[in-house]
Amino acid sequence: MNFLHARGTSLGVVVLVMWLVTGLQAGISYSVGEGALSNLEPGAFHVYIPVFFALRIALLLLLALLWLLGRKRVLFLVIIAANAYFTLALLLDVIALMRVLGGLRQAAASLLIDAALMSLSNMFIFSIWYWIVDPPGVEEDPLEDEPWAFLFPQRGGPLPHYENWSPGYADYLFIGFTTNFAFSPTDALPLTRTAKMLMLVQSGISVVIVTGIAGGAINALVGSA
Predict the structure, then answer these.
(1) How many whole angstroms separate alpha carbon 149 and alpha carbon 115?
(2) Are 67 and 15 in contact (CB under 8 A)?
(3) Alpha-carbon distance values, 196 to 9, 14, 104, 134, 199 (Å)
(4) Alpha-carbon separation of residue 194 from 22, 43, 171, 186, 222 (angstroms)
(5) Can you name the residues that pair with 189 across neighbouring β-strands?
(6) Backbone angles phi, psi at 196, to 5 degrees
């Protein structure tokens, strides 16, 4: 336990979630050279696939190494950079799949799987953003002067047995899940402009994934039945 505490348990959780996000994004058929939709990619795109793959592996190894070495401050900055990269990759995947959506009855099943992988990536990526922007945050340092980014029910007023309550990753994962599928806040309300803009972006991505990609794939499957 001392080993985990010295290196930051929360930071370790974030590193593990980023490994999970990489696995999810690596399975999207459009962005995999041998995927079911790879023949629809522009020829030049195949040249960059090894570069993107190498960059993701390098980021993951750097995250793990910094955590093992206990370099918390540097790790926090690399987490922000890596999550920004994963967010951009998710946006590019959504845009790319929307471009090739029309007339893909034969690839509808792959599109549904891709939509599920992107939806999960969206949930995990933004759960990390929410944890980063809401004090005490990933660094687990008490920030007395920093305003909350989210108003959880436990923060809204005194509740029995919640006097010393502080949000953890599961709470931000729940925000990521509900924003992903409800397209709006549920129990935790965004307070800061940063939190509101993050939820706006996540909801926008989710709307495209669920109504655009998944909906189009389902229509293609129904039409081919």
Answers:
(1) 29
(2) yes
(3) 27, 21, 35, 12, 5
(4) 25, 38, 18, 17, 40
(5) 151
(6) -65, -40
What's the token pair of residue 27?
């399975």
Q: How many whole angstroms separate alpha carbon 180 and alpha carbon 45?
A: 29
- Output Rg (C-alpha) for the chain, integer angstroms: 19
- Residue 11 near residue 75, CB atoms below 8 Å: yes
pLDDT value of position 221:
63
Q: What residues does each domain of the chain span?
A: 2-224
Smallest Cα–Cα separation from 179: which of 133, 125, 216, 132? Answer: 125
Q: Give the mean pLDDT per block of 10 residues along the chain (225 residues).
A: 71 90 77 54 56 84 91 90 89 74 64 84 94 83 76 84 85 93 85 94 89 73 58
pLDDT in tens, 66-78: 999 888 889 989 9
Contact criterion met (CB below 8 Å) for 178 and 186: yes
